[in-house]
Design goal:
By secondary structure, this protein is of the alpha+beta class. It has 2 domains: 59 residues, Winged helix-like DNA-binding domain superfamily/Winged helix DNA-binding domain (Arc Repressor Mutant, subunit A); 151 residues, 3-Layer(aba) Sandwich (Restriction Endonuclease), CATH 3.40.91. The protein is built from 8 helices and 10 strands. Strands 4, 5, 6, 7, 8, 9 and 10 form a 7-stranded mixed sheet that branches. A 3-stranded antiparallel sheet has the order 1-3-2. It is elongated. The two termini are 26 Å apart. The C terminus is likely disordered. InterPro entries: WH_DNA-bd_sf.
């Protein structure tokens, strides 16, 4: 695929990402003034560069691999995220998601469980941590209500959204119903989420499958 077409597709995705991270291939084609087949060809190259994630007829712009992003996260949390990415039998993808002032890491398991992780400082005052937890809960709920369109899970279908606060250190706990995990416990949470899924006090959101079906019909 010619590099100029890849560049046009990447530029179109960046413009569209200002409104939402995940869009249809038809929307990208219209924005870039290219045919859908040209867009698909360009997306293959962009996906190899880990700039996008393609799921069916939808594409999500991630902006690059996690380890090249300008996250202000500690070395332990970064190490764990890299370890999470290597668990390919369980984890379908790890990518960045921006929503307003929040910069998030999304970890999508192959079984449709999607962790929306907000990295925080281990020194956050309690009041600020509570505020971040509430904001993250609202965001996770909206994403789920919209059918989890902006949370691709590789070839699988996202079904549950689990918001998580994560830091280099601290004690595992719930903050306003949101799971808080230090780096040393985050991998265990992602690999074996069953305990929190059965905890009635944990905030977990189910993807609105009706919204997904309606969006699929619209794309067709």
């Amino acid at each position: 695929m010619p590099s100029n077409i890849e560049r046009r597709v990447a530029q179109a995705l960046r413009r569209l990402a200002r409104r939402r991270n995940c869009v249809s291939i038809a929307e990208v084609a219209a924005e870039a003034r290219l045919t859908p087949s040209d867009v698909r060809g360009a997306l293959e190259g962009l996906e190899k560069k880990r700039l996008v994630i393609v799921s069916g007829d939808r594409v999500c712009y991630t902006g690059g691999p996690v380890d090249e992003q300008s996250y202000v996260i500690g070395p332990e949390l970064r190490r764990v995220i890299n370890e999470v990415r290597s668990r390919r039998s369980i984890v379908a993808s790890v990518y960045e998601l921006e929503r307003g002032p929040l910069r998030l890491l999304v970890v999508a398991r192959r079984d449709g469980i999607v962790f929306v992780v907000l990295p925080v400082s281990g020194r956050e005052p309690t009041e600020r941590l509570v505020g971040l937890a509430r904001r993250l809960a609202r965001l996770a709920r909206r994403l789920a209500e919209d059918g989890c369109h902006d949370l691709p899970a590789g070839r699988g279908t996202p079904r549950l959204v689990v918001p998580v606060l994560a830091s280099d250190y601290g004690a595992p706990r719930l903050v306003e119903g949101i799971v808080f995990r230090p780096a040393r416990s985050l991998l265990a949470l992602i690999i074996g989420p069953e305990p929190i899924l059965s905890d009635p006090f944990t905030r977990i959101y189910e993807c609105n499958q009706q919204a997904r079906r309606e969006e699929s019909q619209y794309i067709e």
